[in-house]
Amino acid sequence: MSLPSTLSKALQTSVLCPTFVANLLGNKCVCLAVARVHSLRQRPTSSILASLAVADLSMLSFLVFRLIWLYDFEAASKACEVFVALLATLSFVSIAHICLLSCDRYVAIVNPLRYTEIVTTKRIKRALPVAWIAPVAGTFLIPLSYLNSASSQFRTSLISCSASGSDPSHVYKVHQAFNFALFQVIPFAVMLFVHGRIAMISWSQNNRVQPGENLNPEMAELRRKRRNEMKWMKPIGEETLSYVLDF
Fold first, then answer.
1. Percent of the chain beyond pLDDT 90?
2. pLDDT-based confidence at 100, cuts 50/70/90?
3. Which of 103, 149, 189, 238 is deepest in the core (most CB within 10 A)?
4. CA 191 – CA 169 distance, rounded (Å)
5. What pLDDT is stored for residue 241 in this prediction?
6. DSSP reduced 3-state for 116
7. Tens digit of pLDDT for each residue in 209-238?
8. What average pLDDT score do residues 28-46 get?
9. Maximum pairwise Cα distance, the chain
């Protein structure tokens, strides 16, 4: 396979290095904020944010791998297969976390009075291990039972570490289709429903005028909280869209 030119190396390095620094600083700030700010530690959602930041920090390893690939292809090719599985795992983990955040905001907007009863620290602590363990099992552990040389070569060819070889085994194709459905299609379908439902609620509230609503401080406070929750949904939606475009 052809190696990147000097110009290509320079261009990719100029993009990868600032991306690495920005990702490192941004996610480190999130982790420090959750660890040091008492009010954030009291919110169950903060645990999801911190866990998502850890997943994004772990994905920096792929940026490092890409830089090694640019300047020392032989060294990168030895660890290529591991990084392919690592990239898929961390992507699935991030998608699961974004899905959890979307569901959390959905509950906060649709049922704000029972939010603290539904979203509890105990339930978050149960959900987060699943968001990590399921992708690890699906992309790292299960393939150990069937992965062969053809499938390995096909995986490494996805990020240009090797030439495209023969087709992978039927078991590999079935497993990848299962991973795609479980870790991408289902979470995106849930997020699509959640964001659509929230948009309908927002439109309904903006077009509904109740007599004396402006004179009722409780209703005014409830609408203010819902507007804040909907603002919270905007960055989640943007990150979801970025993962859709990546895949």
1. 19
2. very high
3. 103
4. 32
5. 47
6. helix
7. 454 445 455 555 556 665 655 555 555 555
8. 87
9. 72
* CATH code where residue 141 lies: 1.20.1070.10
DSSP type of residue 125: H
The residue count for the chain: 247
Torsional class of 167: left (φ above 0), alpha (ψ -120 to 50), beta (otherwise): beta
CA distances from 118 to 10, 14, 113, 115, 173 (A): 51, 46, 10, 5, 38
Give the closest residue to 233 by CA, choosing from 117, 31, 98: 98
Q: Would 1 be classed as within a structural domain?
A: no
What are the C-alpha distances in Å from 147 to residues 42, 68, 92, 142, 191?
Answer: 44, 26, 20, 9, 32
Rounded Cα distance between 242 and 247, Å, is: 9
Q: What H or E segment, with its residue span, contains residue 203?
A: helix 186-206
> What is the span of the domain harbouring residue 32?
6-246
Q: Which SS3 state, helix, strand or coil, does residue 168 take?
A: coil
User: CA 97 to CA 131: how far, in whole Å?
Assistant: 7
Q: Is residue 20, in this structure, part of any structural domain at all?
A: yes
- Whether 112 and 205 have beta carbons less than 8 Å apart is answered as no
102 close to 223: Cβ distance less than 8 angstroms: no
What pTM does this model have?
0.77
Domain total in the chain: 1
The pLDDT confidence band at residue 247, using thresholds 50, 70 and 90, is very low
Q: Is residue 213 situated within a structural domain?
A: yes
Tokens representing 23 are 């990702």
User: Beta strands of the chain (E only): which ranges?
Assistant: none
Q: Are 94 and 243 in contact (CB under 8 A)?
A: yes
